[in-house]
Fold this sequence. Notes:
mainly alpha; CATH 3.30.1330.60; three-stranded parallel beta sheet; 6 helices
Amino acid sequence: MLNRAYRGAVWLSAFGVAFAIAGCDKRHERLNAPPQGDSNRPHEMGKNFIYMNDNAMLHDSSVADIHFEPHTAELSGLGIRTLMRMGELLSISGGTIRYETSSTDEFMITGRLNSVREFLNAAGFDTANINVEAGMARSSGVDANHAIEVKLSRPADTAAQAGQAGQAATAGAPAGPQQPR
């Protein structure tokens, strides 16, 4: 009996290993796009988002600290990709690329501005029509009053927001301990 159970366990283990090896060898296609670059299977709606992204990029016309390697003037992968597309768009009609930062390090700001200029020049874009300067992005962002209205019109999502809503509701209530009713 023990010998029969032992043989069964050995066969079961052998089949398990065989199936694991066969399953691990199969190549699967990616279901999502690579981290950067184009996919071999682009979605049919993707072409619509290209124009939307281009319009947003032209409206904003800025780079920020995230487009550079931390604590350096070297462009990051995102910065290179952004400037390639922005350079293509701005070479048509010209414009200004603004570097928006909260840094006060003038040496770093100047180095990053020069990196953007050098990259655009090295990439072959007509830099005579593309200015690069430090400053705020062109987009105005969201109006603060509108943001407050939207925030207050939504139901409380978290306990902290629920606590704030409760404080606002009891602002007109009398101070001091409440008597049970």
